[in-house]
Amino acid sequence: MQSPQSRWVTPLIWRLLLRFASVAIPLLCRLRVTGDVPDAMRGGPLVLAGNHIGNYDPPAHVAACARRRIAPRMMATGGLFRAPLFGWMMRASGHIPVHRGRADVGDAVAQATEALRHGSVVFIYPEGRIGLDPAMWPERPKTGLARMALATGAPVVPVAVWGTHEVIAYHGAGAMARTAFTALFRRPVVRVHFGEPVDLSDLRIGDVGAAQRASDRIMDAITEALAPLREHELRLPRHVDHTRPLSTARVRRPARRP
C-alpha cells in the first residue's frame, strides 16, 4: 500500500488530452462503448488489457477510457516517444515506452510494475503487436502483463475492441492516409467493451507456470469480451485490409474461442 504522497497523480496535460480525445477520436468512427470498470478499481492500481487489431486501437481505447473517466498510462512502442512534439506529450503524460528490438526492452515491464505499485492504471496490449491471425482473434500473448499483475496484485480488466481495422489501414503511408480520410465520410462503427475482471487469485508469482496460466486466462477473457462485438463475423472479418499480412505463427485456440 502506497502512502497518499507517493501515489501517482495524472498530469494536467494527459487530463486535457483525454477530454480532447473523447471529442476528436469519434470524428473518424461511430464509437460505441459498453461495460465498465468497478468503482473500487477505477482509481488504480489496475491493468487494462486490450486486443490489438489495427492502428486505430490506441485512439479508440483512449476515447473509451475517457468516456469511463479512466486515465490510463499507455504502454506504447518506443518510437512514438522519439517523435517531435508527440513524443514530448507522451513523456509528459506519463506513458511507458516499450523499446522493441533493444536490449532494454524488458525495462518496460519493470516500469509498469512500479507504476502499478504507485496506484496507476496501466493499459497494455498483451500480444505485443497488431495481431496477424487471419480470423483476427487474439494471438498468443507475451507473459509481461501476467507477471506485472501477479507481482503487484493489481486486478486485470479486459478491454476488447472491434472495427478499428476499418478506420486506418495496417501499412503504407498512402493507404493509411486514404482510409483515414475516407473514414471521415464512412464513419465505420467501432465497438469497445470493458469486460469482467479476470480472477487470478489462485496464482502466485514465482510458482511454476503461473505466469503462463495467468496469460491464458487474460487472453481468454479478452476473447470472451470480443465475441459479442463481432457476433456476425465470428469466423472471418467482413472487412479485408489488403495491406495487412496474415500469419498463423502465433494463432491460439483458447477454450472460450467461438
TrEMBL record:
Designated name of the protein: Lysophospholipid acyltransferase family protein
Keywords: Acyltransferase, Transferase
Domain Phospholipid/glycerol acyltransferase: start-end pairs: 46-164
Source organism phylogeny: Bacteria, Bacillati, Actinomycetota, Actinomycetes, Micromonosporales
InterPro entries: Plipid/glycerol_acylTrfase
Originating species: Luedemannella flava
Domain of life: Bacteria
Region described as Disordered: 239-258
Pfam families in alphabetical order: Acyltransferase
Claim: Acyltransferase is one of the keywords in the record: yes
Hydrolase listed as a keyword: no
